[in-house]
């Protein structure tokens, strides 16, 4: 599918198009996103092809090619306005591993005019695809191609007048076809469902079926009832804005099939990408792959070239299921079209002013984020570490200005096993030797107590304590979930002692655990949130400190700042993320999918797994050390097409994008079981 980011009607190449009728591109994108979500809710994998400026019809992805019987054919368009699309789809199909990609000599517009019914291809001609090209497609695919003559210009592609229901049956609109073709269809499909004039007039036949569920327009009630009476389950979608360009559900959907003829669903599509090649386990060899990059990471030997949804593809076309999600920064999947569209729009307006001037994006973003957090104010920054540093500065300033702590005496209590970033101040209160060794002297003013121990925290507090900084769930330590009385106890203690409770929700927040914020699992509201990672939608770094005016109001001009903090591009992206979280759909998805993931992971306890922890789509997995280190297991998983990351010892962590499907979860856990067996 290709999102309608550039969709307009500026020219006429079919009778549906009228440049005098206004097109609402934002509404078209909203409708398209709803269609994509329907496909994913039915268990199908959706690959997204980037839209191209100047190609407003590229949203109609079905015209981009044909994939059947292990053969992939890219389109050759009839009109010059769409001609460049063929090269874009050919390139995408090749780089995404669906090649080799064939190109015909003759004009053909992909699944617009070639519809697969079982072991035959029905092929339309008369307006777009040339009749001679039918023979080319038959030769390339090895399947019989049946020519059908289209005679009504409103139904210029076969998929506008005929819908494939399953491997043996169709629905169609007879008046769209010439007499010989009508007779042929009646003979081939005696049980076909016949569409009415009203059905055809709203492109009711422009549908997508998996053999059971039929996704179709909501504007064809007669056809909907006929399909339901025939035993199909219909899912109706409003795609009225895209109808202005002469397309519907099927037009927006290019189906990709494996050699068995079935559409590439979740399980089969995954298996296809992981044939051949192994990954090296030689850490010492890794720096040579990137000789000009500082060696502050030891990455898995996987090099991403493209990514979409929950999948990453390397330069050789090998696909990997991303179960790390960039440490929760890619909560909404790689290149989510709504977020990408917001970024594209802002890129065309203004990206950076510094805070020396106002931008029209900043206040709306801060207002929306404040509402999501039920707070008054936002201090926008860039990275998660910046947000934590900023929160510490604010807490100290609050301690001096409001609480009355003597100057230079403010203390912040932190938890053992913490991870809040890697700046000098932050590693000053870390107990991870890798983070600390060789980086002193360290910043004073921090007191570390055991995580999960309210008593130790109470004992450490004194009159100079200004804040407690805590991760509701510790991520880097292995997804450590605290005792149920811990966070409520911290909240009570902070209230009683006039101490700020700062919740670091940079990894745990914004839907990851099945709630907007992890603290909500314990009905706790902190004084200060630090947010980052997912706030940037996987597009760019966006972070924030969120609190009420009596806390953030202690900052005055010149006391804190950031050239890029709150820049218009970041604000546009962050605002989109907040809007996406507003109705709770993403949080509910993380909760539901998380239950499945944790249930499947618990089945591995006693079979190479010692323990599983976490909430929502976030899991820490302790592997039997006899089976190898966490890095060893992650390397085996990469060989099997799953990307995960180890943390201390033999612990793995999983944080897949929230767009991951149930079947993809099952497949990933099965690969983990295989990695443990090997």
TrEMBL record:
Its cofactor is pyridoxal 5'-phosphate. Its EC number is 2.6.1.13. Pathway: Amino-acid biosynthesis; L-proline biosynthesis; L-glutamate 5-semialdehyde from L-ornithine: step 1/1. Coiled coil: none annotated. Gene3D superfamilies: Aspartate Aminotransferase, domain 1, L-arginine/glycine Amidinotransferase, Chain A, Type I PLP-dependent aspartate aminotransferase-like (Major domain). GO terms for biological process: L-proline biosynthetic process. CDD domains: OAT_like (cd00610). Keywords: Amino-acid biosynthesis, Aminotransferase, Proline biosynthesis, Pyridoxal phosphate, Transferase. One of its GO terms (molecular function) is pyridoxal phosphate binding. Signal peptide: none annotated. NCBIfam families: DiMArgaseDdahMtb, Orn_aminotrans. This is ornithine aminotransferase.
């Amino acid at each position: 599918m290709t999102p309608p980011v550039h969709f307009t009607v500026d020219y006429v190449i079919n009778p549906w198009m009228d440049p005098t009728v206004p097109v609402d591109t934002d509404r078209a994108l909203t409708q398209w996103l709803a269609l994509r979500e329907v496909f994913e809710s039915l268990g199908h994998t959706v690959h997204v092809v980037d839209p191209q400026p100047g190609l407003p019809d590229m949203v109609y992805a079905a015209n981009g090619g044909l994939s059947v019987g292990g053969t992939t054919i890219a389109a050759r368009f009839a009109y010059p306005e769409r001609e460049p699309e063929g090269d874009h789809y050919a390139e995408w199909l090749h780089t995404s591993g669906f090649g080799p990609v064939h190109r015909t000599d003759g004009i053909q517009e992909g699944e617009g005019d070639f519809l697969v019914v079982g072991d035959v291809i029905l092929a339309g001609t008369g307006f777009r695809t040339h009749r001679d090209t039918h023979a080319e497609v038959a030769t390339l695919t090895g399947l019989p191609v049946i020519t059908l003559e289209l005679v009504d210009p409103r139904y210029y592609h076969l998929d506008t007048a005929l819908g494939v229901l399953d491997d043996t049956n169709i629905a169609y609109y007879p008046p769209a076809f010439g007499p010989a073709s009508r007779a042929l269809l009646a003979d081939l499909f005696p049980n076909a469902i016949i569409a009415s004039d009203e059905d055809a007039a709203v492109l009711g036949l422009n549908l997508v079926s998996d053999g059971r569920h039929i996704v179709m327009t909501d504007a064809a009630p007669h056809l909907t009832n006929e399909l339901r009476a025939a035993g199909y389950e219909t899912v109706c979608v409003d795609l009225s804005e895209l109808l202005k360009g002469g397309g519907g559900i099927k037009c927006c959907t290019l189906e990709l099939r494996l050699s068995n003829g079935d559409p590439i669903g979740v399980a089969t599509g995954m298996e296809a990408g992981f044939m051949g090649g192994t990954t090296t386990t030689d850490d010492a060899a890794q720096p040579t792959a990137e000789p000009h990059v500082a060696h502050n990471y030891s990455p898995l030997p996987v090099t991403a070239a493209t990514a979409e949804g929950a999948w990453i593809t390397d330069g050789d076309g090998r696909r990997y299921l991303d179960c790390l999600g960039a440490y929760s920064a890619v909560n909404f999947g790689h290149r989510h079209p709504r977020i990408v569209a917001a970024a594209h729009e802002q890129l065309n307006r203004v990206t950076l002013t510094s805070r020396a001037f106002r931008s029209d994006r900043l206040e709306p973003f801060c207002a929306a984020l404040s509402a999501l957090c039920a707070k008054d104010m936002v201090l926008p920054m860039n990275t998660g570490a910046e947000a934590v540093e900023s929160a510490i500065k604010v807490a100290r300033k609050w301690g001096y200005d409001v609480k009355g702590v003597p100057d230079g005496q403010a203390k912040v209590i932190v938890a053992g096993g913490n991870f809040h970033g890697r700046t000098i101040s932050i590693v000053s209160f870390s107990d991870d030797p890798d983070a600390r060794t060789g980086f002193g002297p360290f910043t004073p003013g921090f007191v570390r107590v055991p995580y999960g121990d309210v008593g130790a925290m109470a004992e450490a507090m004194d009159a100079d304590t200004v804040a407690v900084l805590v991760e509701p769930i510790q991520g880097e330590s292995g997804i450590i979930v605290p005792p149920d009385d811990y966070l409520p106890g911290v909240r009570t203690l902070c209230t009683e002692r006039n101490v700020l409770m700062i919740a670091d929700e940079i990894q745990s927040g914004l839907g990851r655990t099945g709630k907007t914020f992890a603290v909500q699992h314990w009905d706790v509201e902190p004084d200060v949130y630090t947010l980052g990672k997912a706030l940037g939608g996987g597009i760019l770094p966006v972070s924030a400190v969120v609190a009420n005016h009596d806390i953030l109001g202690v900052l005055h001009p010149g006391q804190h700042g950031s050239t890029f903090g709150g820049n218009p591009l970041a604000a546009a992206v962050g605002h989109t993320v907040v809007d996406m979280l507003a109705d709770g759909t993403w949080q509910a998805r993380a909760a539901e999918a998380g239950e499945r993931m944790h249930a499947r992971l618990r089945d591995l306890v006693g079979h190479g797994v010692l323990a599983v922890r976490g909430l929502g789509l976030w899991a820490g997995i302790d592997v039997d050390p006899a089976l190898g280190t966490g890095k060893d297991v992650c390397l085996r998983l990469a060989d099997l097409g799953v990307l995960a990351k180890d943390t201390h010892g033999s612990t793995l962590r999983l944080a897949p994008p929230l767009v991951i499907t149930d079947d993809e979860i099952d497949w990933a856990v099965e690969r983990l079981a295989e990695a443990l067996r090997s």
